[in-house]
Amino acid sequence: MTTELRKTGMDVVGDIAWGTHCCLFYETKADLLDTLVSYCKAGLEGHEFCLWVVASPVTEEDAAHALGHVVPDIDRHIMDGSIEIVAARDWYLQDGTFDLERVIHGWNEKLASAMARGYAGVRVTGDTAWLETKDWKDFCDYEESLNEAIANQRLAVLCTYPIEACRAGEVLDVVRTHQFAIAKRRGDWDVIETAGHKQAKREVLERKRVEEALRRSEAYLAEAQRLSHTGSWAFNRTETVYWSEENFRIWGFDPQQAPPRREMVLQRLHPEDRDRVLEEAQTAVRERRDYVVEFRIVLPDGTVRHIQGLGHPVFDANGELVEVVGTQVDVTERKRAEQERQKLHQLQADLSRISRVSTMGELTASLAHEIKQPIAAAVTDANTCLRWLARADPDVEEGREAAGRVVKDVTRAADIISSIGALFKKGAVPRELVDVNELIREMIGMLGSEAKRHFISVRAELDPGLPQAMADCVQLQQVLMNLMLNGIDAMKDTSGAHELTIKSETDAAQPVISVRDTGAGLLPEHVDQIFNTFFTTKDHGIGMGLPISRSIVESHGGRLWVTANAEGGATFQFSLPAAGMSTFI
Amino acid sequence: MATQGKAKVVSIVDDDDLMRGALQGLLKAVGLPARAFASAEEFLESGQQHETACLIADIRMSGMSGLELQAKLNAERLWIPTIFITAHGDERMRMQALRSGAVEFLAKPFDDEVLLESVRAALES
């Protein structure tokens, strides 16, 4: 039985469900016409096909005339076949006999034709004034079987009985065979329900309540799916069993259509991902486990969406695959945001690299300029000296003067080199309390994408009890960054494991930071030279990073040294005095 | 006004005292008289630009740069053959100098023979 309610047009009854079979006892022709006119009017307004079977003393003309009073365009309804008014003898008593089967068959035919013509259902009213005692028993059987026959149909039947013609026993028969009876009681219409019908009504209401709860729950689920861009689906071996509304949207299928067939779904998978997804799903089913797979789909307009899929195979008691159910999350937006974030990180890393390079670069360019001056002078003076001495008559005095200038030139060059360290002398910049662990984490964040670009994993082993250092934060950043970038440089062109480990530990109450790489390592003869100015093993290096780093660390009263790892690679370490220590050099 | 054929003086403009001394010493060793100035401004104030047959100038100096000096001389219609010496010249700077009439553009440290050849060529022109 459907729970869809129809208006009866009778105030005392209100709405009824399809499948309702009720009776009405009338006293006068006027009562009957009044009631049935409203009943049919409500049917026409509800776009139902109406069939009115009239019996003496009411004629087809009476019925049409009475209807015309309340339904102005009744002629049109009669013309287009929305309502038929027929005589009871023609309907119930073909060949003069009542045949239960034939009449019920007649209702069903009317129903089929009405549904085919697009009506919401069929509303019937039939009068029984023609009934004779000989047919009473058969008609009761008919009324009884009608309840079952129309129970699940879009059919409602109102049978009308002239109360004066019914004996008490017959009234009881009629009431028993209908879901409820309508009768005039003290001048007003009243409804008499049977206990069974009350129960049925309660069931309808209960079912309505359950259906409503289900609809609400489905609406919330659909809303949740829409909000989280999550669709759900189920496939059995041959077809798509279920495809949620959100899944229709994600895959760009028309939700008005049936769930897309498997081939249609596969067709929208990105060609580069199709085999992988299928294989993942098949393997999971074979191994009887859930699977998670990321893939792309291509919509007919070329839009590419990134999907995160999850599948769960369901097996029956015999271990046979029943179906695979799953969810699909549209992660396109998330993916885009992630890419943006990565780009931002890369930009940040590039920026810090540029600023590092430009700081060091500017420094070295100006140092290079400073150093080249006295060296150029020394070369010129030495050549001049040679010229004086190479004469046929050597001028030793001039030669000595030129050589003296060479000494001055070279001394200037040496002074400049030693002044590099002085750039970072204590007191030049204010020192503050620095949480070295925090600084390490910052640097790892900044250089993370640089490391990732070269497939290098960065690991931190930080001592939570590390004492704070009194230092110039920016200079420490430079040292750390320089050591980390050196480590990355050392590994990026080598094979084997690529791991950069930054460790902080406390040694004799001092923070000690180490940067360990698994790169090419150090030649023993380089260990001593590596901190020398302009020493480099790199093609593009300028050999300034480590001397400057050492100068910075030493200006803080710490030490910077390097050791070769037994298993390859190098470890640079530096110590810093803890904040409370007064051991600054 | 430029006075070719008069005293053939070489002028050196470099803010680095060692370089100035070295260049002066080199020219003296080959018998060429030279005057040295610690800045472009000092050179312009001395009036020696009118007596100079060849100018050797550093590019990057505190105050007026070598290229600015050359532009200023050109603006005064003084076309002195100029040899630039710089510790950090790039190709762009080199082209700018040569387009403005420089006869040579040398990077420090330089080959003294190349410098002297240019100086001699300038003096004989």
Average of pLDDT of chain B: 87
Widest sheet: strand ordering of chain A:
5-4-6-7-3-8-9
- The portion of residues assigned to helices of chain B is 40-55%
Number of helices of chain B: 5
* Radius of gyration of chain A, CA atoms, in whole angstroms: 49 Å
Low-confidence stretches of chain B: 1-5
Mean pLDDT of chain A: 85
Q: Give the structural class of chain B.
A: alpha/beta
Helix content of chain A: 40-55%
Strand content of chain A: 15-25%
User: What is the rounded distance between the termini of chain A?
Assistant: 96 Å
Strand order of the largest sheet of chain B: 2-1-3-4-5
| Most extensive chain interface and residues per partner | A-B, 24 and 19 residues
Could you explain the architecture of this structure?
The complex is a heterodimer of chains A (585) and B (125). Chain A is an alpha/beta fold and 585 residues long. Chain A is built from 17 helices and 21 strands. A 7-stranded mixed beta sheet of chain A has the order 5-4-6-7-3-8-9, sandwiched between helices. In chain A, strands 11-10-14-13-12 form a 5-stranded antiparallel beta sheet, with helices on both faces. Chain A has a 5-stranded mixed beta sheet with strand order 16-18-19-21-20. In chain A, α6 (133-150) packs parallel to α7 (168-177) and α14 (436-453) packs parallel to α15. Chain A is rod-shaped and about 160 Å long. Chain B has 125 residues and is α/β, with parallel strands linked by helices. In chain B, 42% of the residues lie in helices and 22% in strands. A 5-stranded parallel beta sheet of chain B has the order 2-1-3-4-5, sandwiched between helices.
